[in-house]
Amino acid sequence: MTIFQLRQQWLQGEMIKRGWSGFLVTHHVDIYYYCGSMQTGYLFIPAEGEALYLVRRSLIRAEEEASADVEALGSWKTLAERLRARCAAAADAPLWIATELDVLPVQLFGKLQAALPGAAWEDGSLLVREQRMIKSPDEVAAIREAARVVDAALEAVIPHIREGMAEFELMALIEHQLRLRGHQGLMRMRAYNSELITGMVATGAAAAVPTYFDGPAGGTGLHPSSPQSSGRALLVRGEPILVDIGCMVDGYLIDQTRTLVIGDLDPELQHAYDVAEQVLRATEAKLQPGMIAEHLYLLALDQVQEAGLGAHFMGYGADQVKFLGHGIGLEIDELPVLAKGFKYPLAPGMVIAIEPKFTFPGRGVVGVEDTYLITDSGWEKLTISRQGLIRV
Amino acid sequence: MTIFQLRQQWLQGEMIKRGWSGFLVTHHVDIYYYCGSMQTGYLFIPAEGEALYLVRRSLIRAEEEASADVEALGSWKTLAERLRARCAAAADAPLWIATELDVLPVQLFGKLQAALPGAAWEDGSLLVREQRMIKSPDEVAAIREAARVVDAALEAVIPHIREGMAEFELMALIEHQLRLRGHQGLMRMRAYNSELITGMVATGAAAAVPTYFDGPAGGTGLHPSSPQSSGRALLVRGEPILVDIGCMVDGYLIDQTRTLVIGDLDPELQHAYDVAEQVLRATEAKLQPGMIAEHLYLLALDQVQEAGLGAHFMGYGADQVKFLGHGIGLEIDELPVLAKGFKYPLAPGMVIAIEPKFTFPGRGVVGVEDTYLITDSGWEKLTISRQGLIRV
């Protein structure tokens, strides 16, 4: 049994508990997660029995890759009959089908509803996201390799950092080194309208410019049509250079931040950087199975308020984001989120990026981010880059 | 009046014809198109009067950038009241609101429906896509600049192409050169589950491996989790190297393909390449206002069948795609598509990438792609790279 079939089996157990007939997986990332192939089509996992991967293109590749029965998608008119044939339900019993309503567009959902008349639909997206929260050893291995690639790329680039270099030039160097080492060139996000271009690489005041992006760092970007991350600002001695980067290896993402500086930071920013490290150390001390995700955020809030840095934590003023970290895997924005309202107890196999940062408008962003695996006894850091402020 | 307000005005004219109360623009690309800002939130364009941009983050940047009244999104409870206040309708008349159901996820649509009880909803996505089909001079200028960047990057990379170089190394070089020249690092696509990583750069048999991607070229990719474009295949003398690349400048995309070879192609592939050029020349001869989009595809089909290459055109066998070209602008997959069923008459301001290609399983893909502006008198080629097969 492949890891993909084991995932289907877990989902089937949950479906049986709920009385669902099956799960029609439509999102390419979820399809890959459950069958190991990412061709165009639909993966139907019945509550019992073999999964059916209905593929438009490329059938050949789906047949080579997928842990599922593969058939050509063919006519939508045959969809109802073919899905029903996979279900244990009596021929006239109504189907109860889950799918990912957090990402599925309304128009396509309408087409699916019309193709499966009489079916009841259920939003299965949270269940999928909760299953994906716990990583298997192969997933951890891929994330570990991505961490190695990010570190190697960062180290390869550091000797080339110079005053007067533009943010986008630094980003171009980083991306080149990442790609040479196996980065697949995408940073997938699940949330509607979300995009990420390798990460947030920005310097001084430009890094502190707020963005729409649901993260603590900002950046001007090159143009209002992609208003985040690297722009044309030049690296200046004494300013914090935020290098918040990731990459994708074998489908899995890593996320890591280091603060760099040419020369020295001014004492106030250096102090804030030190507090970010202290927050990360304090969080590590609490990072273990059973700890409630939101508590880590609330504890960090207390700590930064005591340090007098509450107004600068994870953005500034109205543009603050209200989290300390996030799950990561096939997508950047996975569960659990270390934020208020997320009551998940940490569990072995979770992979979480933790990123305390402080924003000083007009001056810059300082902080650190590492990605952690929750283990039976606590945690293991997956990111391997050198600790501390990096002086160039 | 800004270009963004002119676009709102055109949309308002269409809404008045249809009796819609307003358009709730939710997709980040469309929000940018209509107001010049891409922050997180919703842009409401009433059938008459000023547009309202309700912004979650970053309010500051939205205020600086947007051609619309900007307010904090605030509580969803106030949404109905605030949208109604923008509409000319009587206080008790039901609202009839269009939005982009081709991209809006079901879950978020449900939230919007709950926030606006009693509103009737309309799928406005086709209207938006049809408006965006006709580019304004500023949009054409951005696409022209993207074309210049792609050409400069290609020329910068050509001298470094060597036998034994891996596809992904060539892609990394291209991306580096694109980014140094202003490429924003994204290739936006609208269709669900669609992704593009700079383009399709692949060699020999690997380029002919079919993909899920809705385009004629393939590529193994680095892993089944991103199964398209560059992989680990090495460049070999005499094999066609397909360099189908684009970039984004000021939000706008370009798409261009050149076939490269180290040494010479074998006669059969050289012949197919020549036919691809002939198809492009024949298409250019028909490219003018009034020509129906699908006819260009059907004429090309006739031409390649006469040349005995029908089985290889735009992919091979079951993995053929059934189009000759596509509109391009803020997204790669814009209207019109040069494919059966697309009855749009060409009109001045349309920008269309035309990409005749031939796939030979086990041997490679050859072809050419240029991007054209439809003008009053015919067309202008926006891509500027050198013509013909490029011998390295």
Automatic annotation (TrEMBL), chains A, B:
Domain Peptidase M24, first and last residues per copy: 142-376
Domain Creatinase N-terminal: 7-134
InterPro entries assigned to the protein according to its UniProt record, in alphabetical order: Creatin/AminoP/Spt16_N (IPR029149), Creatinase/aminopeptidase-like (IPR036005), Creatinase_N (IPR000587), Pept_M24 (IPR000994), Pept_M24_MAP (IPR001714), Peptidase_M24B (IPR050659)
This protein's name: Xaa-Pro peptidase family protein
